[in-house]
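Hey, I'm writing a tutorial for new members on how sequence and structure tokens pair up, and I'd like a real worked example in the thread rather than a made-up one. If someone can provide the structure for the chain below, I'll link this post from the tutorial.
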Amino acid sequence: MFQILYFFTAFFYLFIGIISVSGDKEKKSKYIFHYISICMFLWTMLLFFSYTTDDFNKINTLRLWTTPFYSICPPLFALFLMTVSRKDLSRRQLLILFLPAILNIIIYGLIYPTTPDLATITKYGPLYRNAIGRGPIYDHYFTLYTIFYVVVAFHEIISFVFFTETERDRFIAKNIAIGMGISTSLALFWDVFLPCFLDFSLPRLTVIFFVPAMFFAYIAITKYNFLDIYPEKLFSKILAAMDDGTIITNNLGIIEHFSPGSININLESSPLDMKIEDFFENNDFLEMDEFYDLEINLKDKSIVYLTKETFRDEDGNLLGSNYTFRDAGSVSETQKAFRDLNLSLEKKIKEQTKEIIELEASLNRERNQGIIIEETLDRITHYCPLTGLPNRSLFLDELRTSLSECEESGTPLALLYFNIDAFKSINDDYGYFAGDEVLIKSAKRLTDNLPNYFMARIGADEFGLIIKDYKNIDEIEKISQKIIRLFGEPFNFDFGSKSLNVSIGISLYPDDAMDMETLMQNVDISMHKAKEMEGSVYKFVSAEMKEEVERNFKIRNELKEAIIDGELELYYQPQVDSDKGLIIGFEALIRWNHKSLGFLPPGVFLPVAEKYGLMPNIDRFVLNEAIRQNKEWQDRNLIHVPISVNLSPQEFMSDSLPELVKTTLEEHDLDPKYLELELTEGTLLTDINKVIKIIGKLRDFGVKISIDDFGTEYSSLNYLKTLPASRLKIAKSFIDGIDNNKVDEAIIDAIIVLTDKIGLELIAEGVEEHSQMAYLRDKGCYDIQGFYYYKPMSVEEIEETEVFQINTDRVI
């Protein structure tokens, strides 16, 4: 609930922040309101993101980042109120105004920052407990800071209400005061005073409670033009174009604007800030609201014809007056007669012109607001908010248009997709903000160096590039190599310096495809093919790639049916104690008894199953069938040994695995000690802490754990200290080196000594030669699995060949 509330509140602040500068962009007060809105937007978005994660460290980091934004908003709001009340602050006064906010950032962001242990996850999202007792500064400064800015803000707005000169300003200022009162009361009650009397935490809602205050200020700007009452620059431009002497005064008769003609007629210097009555011998006529071409004597004895007009607001309050001077000495009697005849007409024209100007200004404001909203919606819809690049939707529109143009002109087109390799590891290791920084800098580097091509972000870490009317393949290769170099040059980030690898897929029109859908399918194929290779690689789509994809789709579709139709079958390879000649266990191996192709080895269909998400179904079939078969053999009193089952990394890392294993064992009434689960070292590298947790649960109810292909990953020895495994499997790659490679033999010797020292069981797999078995047995590794003793066999083969009997003939 609060997550949605924060999200919509954030975009309310963003919207009013944009609209607030859509009119007179040179108004200082409007820009201050704009900055307040942006700070509120960032503050709210950080709180929103904190509700999207359960990671206490990330929540704490996001909360800390809100400190500068919630600290700077109160002084900005106070400065906004001072600006609209036409106060100019000195640098020292500005420092005093912002000093408490700076201290607030230092105290609560640097000296006493929040810590993850204060956070707790509730059904309402992450909440923070009050950390009382860190000292008088920590406990009381925030309350004093809040009261200070509340007093300053209310002092400014109330002073403006009582001392403003027009009823219009007073009405608008009262509305702002009401909004501030609502927001401040809610915020102080909920976030400052109420926590003092409760022993549980509340969600921080100050940023939401300030919606009324910001809304009333926004209405004052947009509806009442509160900050546009005195458009000085407009007056200046109009007056500069006038030939007649014109002077405009405020409601107190003080000159605020004048035309050059005013100086030419009767003044020697600028009349700004002087009073209008200072220029005439007799000032009685100034009390009249309006008059036309009165013959007036100036103090310098010259004579002018003077016209006066007054300006009032909708409540009748005087805003100012306009005086137009005509030199009497330069006006002939004939001109005066014509002027008299035209006075009434000019008056009507001025009145109508004024109405037209006001109407046009109103229409322009509404039109500008509509344009800004439309542009904002267009950018949200068609552009990535993080990188500023076009998004997938706009990219597809551009590609569709480009293909149509190329078809008409007969020119070629190249489509490039490229993906940042191992991008997920950046998010996992350094956090999502680090990942965002990578994307932002990558996008900037691409647009700076490839400005002539249409570039877009089409996925989380994927970019697209359209190259129209290329000359030859060399041009495409050079652009691909340039992209690789751009990512290969080190990026400097907050978390350090890093070079990146990219995998680039390329598809050409019309060589590879004539339509957009096929072109995109081909470029996706080539990109994933490039991703299978190490380092930064670019690949053009080929016929072989397309055939492989079609073959994999066929296998995927048939495999779905095979799982349902029961075409999958388990083969079992015995594991032998070479010293005693006894079978000590079996490893269950999946086979596909294809209805037309016969038995298919796992290397053919398991990669396809992993790619298309079919492994969970296969894993559950293998687990259930192995446990069922083992229980059947035990019930028939054929053999009582464990069966080892390999699970995919996805299934092993599932939180539901321990419960699935326990339920399956209970369903078939098999003792857990007769089940061994194998995992590869690659699985360990995904999330070692989670692996240890899952293995611990499995070990708690008696299931054995074996590490397969031991020694093939760099981190194996480090994990053995904390990993609750039962047995290690020496990888076949080391067994093949016996009698051929002294390094492999040395590694095998070290593994045997290591497992003996730490009390782990050990088995060697892939043993095919007598010399290999003899070497292992002499070194103390007696458990053997491989073709030297047995190949994988079906249940029928095992039972028919009496494998369960002790095979002394094969023991040397």
